[in-house]
Amino acid sequence: METNHYQYITEQIEHYSSKPLREAIFFVIKNAIIEGIFLPGDRLTEDDIAQQFNCSRTPVREALRKLEQENLLQVKPGIGMVISNVDIELLHQELEIRKMLENHSIQKACEGIRDEELKKLEWATDKLQQAINNNDRIAEICANIEFHRYIRTVQGHG
After folding, report:
1. Quick check: helix, strand or coil at residue 35?
2. DSSP assigned state of 1
3. According to the model, what pLDDT value does residue 6 have?
């Protein structure tokens, strides 16, 4: 891995300290791909990533497998795991579609919501909007996860 990759990972690790390690690794690497830190064809090794996260290879392997399932990584014979040729514009379009579907789900979930649940959702929404306004991608992701936890609770799945 190049020096700027190490620096990015080191800077991002602390934002995910409350998450399970495999999720933290997944999100940091996914964001690095989206932000253009990792480029198509860049090689990733379990050992390098484990060293950066100061962990065993098991959570790294799980995170890489999930990234592969999302077509962000691919296995190249004789080379190992490399960043896929990702169409960032297509990825952003997919995220927009997902947001539309989630908005519909949220509207359905909020039918008949109680006042105290509504206050929690408003708080989570404000936190998410603040992260977006500050252009803080990591805080945005964390706030988004928290918001969805509240939605699941409202739906009775939390």
Report:
1. coil
2. -
3. 65
Q: What are the tokens at 142?
A: 């964390």
Q: Alpha-carbon dihedral of residues 27, 8, 48, 90, nearest 10 degrees?
A: 50
Kindly state the average pLDDT of the residues 136-143. 76
53 and 9 Cβ atoms separated by less than 8 Å:
yes
Mean per-residue pLDDT, 101-120 = 81
pTM above 0.90, yes or no: no
Dihedral-angle region of residue 46 (phi above 0 means left; psi in -120 to 50 means alpha; beta otherwise): alpha
pLDDT digits (tens, 9 = 90+) for 1-15: 555 666 777 777 777
> Under a CB-based contact definition with an 8 Å cutoff, are residues 81 and 74 in contact?
yes
CA dist., res. 8 & res. 117, Å (int) = 37
